[in-house]
Amino acid sequence: MITLGWIRFAFTCLLLAGGLFFFGAAVMGVWRFVFIINRMHAAGIGDTLALFLILAGLAIGSGWNLETAKLLLLCVFLWFSSPVSSHFLSQIEYFTNPELYDCVEREESEEDRKAERAE
């Protein structure tokens, strides 16, 4: 029985360390990238994965009880809300920053093609 407790402790530590690593990588991505779209991608992906690993580590460490169910519900809520908010903030930047069009590839619309033919 003592061996199973140590195995569970080892899994908890590994998941918590992995979560902290991905949080650190997300912070470095936000700090190092130049454009806001790249920063939002690093923040959105990094914190979602890191939060999942940390919550999974806490759930394994506490065992199956009411707190574990609350952690799973928190994980589901964060998996729905974090990518949606990151996408929304990136769209705001894309549509409101006129200098961003110089750095982002985009498809030509039919109006752009007609304007080029008219010139």
From the structure above, extract its key features.
mainly alpha
Largest sheet: none
- Give the strand tally: 0
Radius of gyration: 21 Å
- Helical/strand content category: mainly alpha
Question: Could you characterize what this model shows?
Answer:
- By secondary structure, the chain is an all-alpha fold.
- The chain has a domain at 35-97.
- Helix content is 82%, strand content 0%.
- It contains four helices and no strands.
- α1 runs antiparallel to α2 (36-62) and α2 (36-62) runs antiparallel to α3.
- The longest helix is centred in the first third of the chain and has 31 residues, at 2-32.
List the helices and strands and how they pair.
Layout: H1 2-32, H2 36-62, H3 66-96, H4 110-118
Helix pairs in contact: 1-2, 2-3
Question: What's this model, at a glance?
Answer:
This protein has four helices and no strands. With about 120 residues, it is mainly alpha-helical.
